[in-house]
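Anyone able to model this chain together with zinc ion?
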Amino acid sequence: MTLSFSDDLSGSMVQLVFPQRICLACGSPVSQPGICDACAQKAISMPRCRHCAAFVLDENELCPSCLDGHNHYFTFARAVYPYEDRMRDWIQAFKYYNKTYLRRPFAAMLFDGYQLYFADKEIDLIVPVPLSSGRLKERGYNQSALCAQLLAKRLKIPYTEKGLLRVKETVALAELSAKERRSCLRDAFSTSWTGLQGKTVLLIDDIFTTGATASTCAKELLDQGAKTIYVLTITAVVI
Ligand SMILES: [Zn+2]
Ligand SMILES: [Zn+2]
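re: yes, here you go
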């Protein structure tokens, strides 16, 4: 998997179209921001890991990370759409190219994902995966927080960024193996916030890759007294 921004899309598409009006996956016109019904149906019917958000090739199988027991700190994770095609470019534009207006279509996708996979759960608190203060200063915004906040507002579920702090920034995780990611992420998150006691938390992020970040965050939240951690991301890798 590469995380490079497609050359042909870096200028033209991202700047010239109105992402509120087109499906972020296939580009067809939509009446609501996010993805079209056909793309939503395609994602729903794709096989995925029973435990985490990764899309897998074999139905009802666990992905390699879950099979090895590495993603066990969260109860369950789901992503709305696979990290592929146009969606990759929109995520990259959102994350690295200052296209913060994409928070609305992405929040709409998260809302649909919540309705599909978490509507029967009693979520007490929505928490985004944090950036370190250095990275936040450099980027100017936390893309996961932008859409998590909109999601929480729409669902009328309490939201906080105090639930989790990133005390150590990690190198580009995309370049690392699953094992390297886990060792790199050790001690990367911390919290001293006391509001987590007994809470069921929905953790929000933009991409689910190996689950190392989500699992490390979940562990920290549990260590600080949270009861159950669920994870919802906009996209997940296909493995
Ligand atoms: Zn579509
Ligand atoms: Zn898995």
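The chain has one domain: 48-236.
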